[in-house]
Amino acid sequence: MITQEIKIDLFADYFQFYIQDEKVDGSLSEDWNQQTLDRLLALGPGIITVGTVRNMTVPVTIKLFDKEPDMLSELGTIGQINECDLETSSDTLVVAGCTDYLPDAMRIKVNTGIYRARIYYGNLDEISEDGLEGEDFYEIHLWPTNEEKELQIIKSRKTGA
What we know:
Elements: E1 2-11, E2 16-21, H1 34-39, E3 41-44, E4 47-51, E5 57-65, E6 78-88, E7 92-97, E8 106-109, E9 113-122, E10 137-145, E11 152-155
Parallel strand pairs: 5-10
Antiparallel strand pairs: 1-5, 2-4, 2-7, 3-4, 6-9, 6-11, 7-8, 9-10
């Protein structure tokens, strides 16, 4: 069951935004390479950096669940789906654009522990020629889990799989 839903517009400066444990200090700016660019995702302890197709403000929806939710049923507009872990040692997640001032960024109260994140990337091919306007959207589903799992690329925009 869904326990919380947050809709926010984030400035995806440098084509990215973060979801991270409030206690984590640092960034993954050095971790971007061809592999992370292709999957639109960089990972580190307590931090997920979601890549975007626009260097502009993008719509983001975050849904917290009490257990693993079903996969979205309407996948026609979804170009990429990644699933990964996010471990929290605090009771707060921070959601921010790449260049946002973290003390002012949105906070989400959670329990400590391991969360699984399923990230849906939608309408990735519906952006203007100059890359400034678009219909792209990003939806993240988070739920608590007791087991750590590897990164899973459920659907890749590069292969169509």
